[in-house]
Amino acid sequence: MHGGGLSGWLLVALCAATGVYCLLRMRACDGAERQAAGGEAVMGFGMAAMALPAAVLTPPGWSWAVYAAVFGGTALFALAGTARGFLVDQAGPGRRGGHRPDHLHHLVGSLAMFYMALAMATPAGEGVRAAQGAHGGHAAGVVGGIPVLTGGLLLYYVVYVLRSGARLVPVPAPAPVPAGGAGMTAGGPGAGWATRPELTLVCRLSMALAMVAMLVTL
Question: For tag attachment on the chain, is the N or C end more exposed, with fewer CB atoms within 10 Å?
Answer without folding.
Answer: C
